[in-house]
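tool=predict chain=A
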Amino acid sequence: MYYRLYKSRLKCLIRNYDMLFWSFAFPILLSLFFYMGFYNLSKDKAIETIPVAVVGDYTFSDDLLQVMERARASEDTPLFWLIKVNQMEAETLLQERQVEGIVYTDEETALVVNSNGYYQTIIKAFLDTYLQSKQTAKRAGSLNQSLQEDVSEIMADNRNYIIDGSGDNPNTTLIYFYTLIALACMFGSKYGFLEMRNIEANQSPVAARLQAAPVHKLKLLLCNLTASFTIHFLSILLLLLFLNKVLMIALGGEILRLMCVCLLGSICGVTLGAMVCVIVKANIKVRSAILYIVVLGGSFLSGMLIVDMKYFITNNIPLLGFINPSNLITDAFYSLYFYDGYDRYQLNLSILGVLTGIFIVITYLEIRRKDYASI
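tool=predict ok
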């Protein structure tokens, strides 16, 4: 009997295209927009060899040229590609953007660029450091002749002038995708809300017929909620698969722990919707509005639109973060990615489980003795 009710409810939910869109399609579409808008912000720009035109007395500037040739952007990549030309050729190369700048190496070193950009800043910073070190060496030599050294040796420590920071730095933009998954979990509240609406006899003709059916109301509700959870959890798994395999977002290697968060988050979302539907004594539109405020407001406070909002709540109103399911789900993902231990992860799951239990108890207490004078 239970399986037949469960199977019948699954068929009904599969035909509810509006619910399928919000649970399956919308989170995926939103993840695409997040990917285009946020994900590339975390990728460090690769350091490439910078073409630089050199004009002037190469003999006079031999030290500078040696230092520039030894400078490395990475272990296998030189920082500068020096092109020795005359002034007219250098200006032509600069106008055609074949070089990023012109270094004049006469008695006074000078730099000419035609724009202010990433590579121009590197060239200027390098030349400033070289000139300061050269001046320091000359002053040291004038004070004590034994300190006089070749300028190229003094600058030897700068050959690895740029350190490529594109290694295993934490990806802070993942917080947006964590909040997206949390929002998708909270979309389960629409299913819980729908099931409670369909079992309240005064809300629709379908609910009135179900109330008169020879099936215990709580048993029927449990079957319906289980079917809703099944559909919703499948949508969460599809979202995780899309993020990891299509968008290639590294959510972390703890796949089973991630799925545990999503599992509990989905149950919490469904039970939240059911609770809001039964405790708010108003018409359906008002109930729906309150549910949307709770879900979307919780997502905002968990850092979905402004990452700093999450940290503000954590530092100033920590209690609000502990009673916000979206924040708990986001923080559980966050702890798996940024922390080696599982204490914070387990704390978030424990609180989320307690909240889910509270939602279930409140819902049960509200509906167990609810009767209707006439339907």
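Residues 192 and 274 are 4 Å apart (CA to CA). Residues 47-156 form a domain with the D-Maltodextrin-Binding Protein; domain 2 fold (CATH 3.40.190).
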